[in-house]
Amino acid sequence: MLCAGPDTGREGGMKILVTGTAGFIGAALSIRLLERGDEVIGLDNLNDYYEVSLKEARLERLNGYPRFRFLRVDVSDRAAMEHVFKTEQPERVMHLAAQAGVRYSLTHPHAYVDANLVGFMTILEGCRHNGVEHLVYASSSSVYGANTRMPFSVHDNVDHPVSLYAATKKANELMAHTYSHLYGLPVTGLRFFTVYGPWGRPDMSLFLFTRSILAGQPIEVFNYGHHRRDFTYIDDLVEGVMRVIDVVARPNPAWSGDSPDPGTSRAPYRLYNIGNNHPVNLLRFIEVLEGCLGRVAEKKLLPMQPGDVPDTYADVKDLVDDVAYRPATPVEVGVERFVNWYKDYYQVG
Question: How far apart are alpha carbons 252 and 241 in whole angstroms?
Fold first, then answer.
């Protein structure tokens, strides 16, 4: 691609603001950035969407690094975020803080407006007014919504979201493009595909399945187990994110308004999928988990839930072309690592 290219070689030694740093991805990314020599300003509001103790335990892993500092701030707090940007002056921003979850958005829609829309606006304004070199932010594979052509490509139109969560992530991409166009702010959106692994989120399927199976309780299997998901191991995702942070988005000189490419722009704007590029049937995923746990799950087969999609499958060609990386950890390896972590963390099994 022509719209991205090597930065000035400044991998490591940067001051990076990571929002959502107590989250699953935020904590894992922060550790890797610190290990390579970056200074990380971690920001999180530690809300109770899921167990706060897990978020605090993730932060404990970060507190031993001298180049890490934690700020307990809500990204939707405009005054507080203005202060953060003004006093910290980060060189780059990795925005991960968001209200996650498709099903939760059906019952708590206002949480998504506050965190994902208002919160994203404070990030854009902070970057605009404080000379941030590159804003990278988390989008989601959910934006593909009603799309059925596989694999999902960032160059396909995604105007038919099927959940409010997906709609807010699509809105983030539109807002980011506007700021890139108006103010020349380099922005890169990353569409994550079903991230899993140690220290994961308790509201996600692997965590829920493991907890229920070990407790001898049935697991709820939606769409009668016919889902396919592009399960992406956390270490693979973090490696991809780090490489993207280091490659500042650039304009695509070949972009044309006559045939607009949704994944690039005349502005310094880019979108990437980060997925394993290998969909796995949900029943196979459960089978792997059963093998790791040494127990057979009692399955409660249910229809597909509102807001859900049957399949996800990431086209990662642009990621390979631009940052020379392709996620590749098989679920057999990733699930085993998660199970080992889970048993150790919760002292079960």
Answer: 21
Q: Is 165 considered catalytic here?
A: yes
Catalytic pick from 49, 104, 165, 269? 165
**d(C-alpha 254, C-alpha 260), whole Å:** 10
Structure tokens at 228: 């396919």
Non-local (6+) Cβ contacts of 265 within 8 A are 3, 177, 180, 181, 251, 252, 255
pLDDT of residue 173: 98
Say if CB 98 and CB 138 are below 8 A apart: yes
Structure tokens belonging to residue 321: 């072309």
pLDDT of 80-118, one tens digit each? Answer: 999 999 999 999 999 999 999 888 899 999 999 999 999
68: amino acid identity, one letter: F
| 297: three-class secondary structure by DSSP | coil
Q: How far is CA 199 from the centre of its chain?
A: 14
Alpha-carbon distance of 345 to 53, in angstroms, equals: 12
pLDDT of residue 11: 54
Instruction: Check: CB of residue 192 under 8 Å from CB of residue 138.
Output: yes
- Residues 303, 221 contacting (CB under 8 angstroms): no
Nearest to 289 by CA among 219, 195, 199: 219
In contact, 220 and 297? CB cutoff 8 Å: no
CA distance 182 to 178: 6
pLDDT at 256 over 50: yes
Phi-psi category of residue 111: left, alpha or beta, with phi > 0 → left and psi -120 to 50 → alpha: alpha
Q: Cα–Cα distance between 344 and 341 in angstroms, integer? A: 5
pLDDT score, position 9: 44
